[in-house]
Amino acid sequence: MIARQNGPEGGDEARSSAAKQAALQSEEAGQSLRWFRRRLSLCQAVLASSFVVLLAACGGGSEGSSDSGGPPPKGEAKLQIVSFGDSLSDVGTYEPIARIYNGGRFTTNPGQVWVQNVAQHYSDTVTAAFTIDLTQKLSPAGGYGYAEGGATVATPAIDNDFLLDVIGNVEMPLTDQVSSYLQAHGGFTSSQLVLVWAGANDVLRAGSSPGSPAIVMTAANSLAAVLAQIVQNGATHVVVLNMPDIGITPQGLSSVDGGATLTQYSQLFNTTLSAALVTNNVSDKLIQVDAYTWLNQVLANYKANGFVVSNTAAACNPNTTPHDTALLCSPSTFITANADQTYMFADPLHLTTRMHSLLAQYVEQQIAASGLGD
Known about the structure:
- The chain is of the alpha/beta class.
- The chain has one domain (about 80-370): SGNH hydrolase (Rossmann fold, 3-Layer(aba) Sandwich), CATH 3.40.50.
- Helices cover about 45% and strands about 5% of the residues.
- It contains twelve helices and six strands.
- A hairpin with a 5-residue loop joins strand 2 (about 130) and strand 3 (about 140).
- The protein is globular, with a radius of gyration of 31 Å.
- It starts with 7 loop residues before the first helix and ends in a 5-residue tail after the last helix.
């Protein structure tokens, strides 16, 4: 059989079929191009959104944000934490006794204090340098957390009778804490971050006599001298927090004058300290953290910071918490189950777990702003 040859009519059909095929291919190519453009636009939008998120994480965006939805990322530097001070920084000096009541630190236990949170940020763990036993005796424990509840800047424990029934007169003032550290370790190193927060007990115990302001000023001057001693012994990264406004604590509000005197003493301590740091030639060698302003700002925006109760009540029930002290406070004595997160204060003076977390983040931000660690 002879195959039929394509005539003019068959050629037209072939050309028509080819044109249709070309048109179909063109349409498919157009669809592919439109799909690619849509994907490209989507990717650009995602990248733009990611840049905004990254900018916010690096400190961009609007100022004054009170977002505290989680801990910041760890600092790049690995630093050993050494801390000195009082109950606001005590990581567990009295825990062997306090554990009888499921307590341990001066906060809403088992929560951490700010020093421990900062240590974690710089890949460290800080434990107590001294701990108490059941006979109310302090013994070296090998840690670098020298802060002790009840401590003043320089006056001995025997002058104060802080929680005498629980711990006795054992707490070391700041001057002795630093001396103990130097005796054990010789000096400080560039791989350490030294945290110092002291003076609150001096302000609280100054009283209201004509000589009270002098007591406050002496404590501030003594603190400046201790900071100079720390720097002179090799510390290159030293953080010092000034006095928070003790007048706005629940204890301050309950005082006869509603906290006015304690606020004045807090301010006097801070102005005296600032001047003394200059006199001791260490003002520019420290990372200074304004705890006074920080506390007032958190209070002014307490709801935005996640709290339900500000400074009008404490998280630890005074009727069920032994001695009404945060040292012996535990979940079984909380006013409500989540009081450690919804109250600002654990007891009339001490901060809750959430407050310590916010303070640690604030301190870490100030450290990063100095150029260290992040």
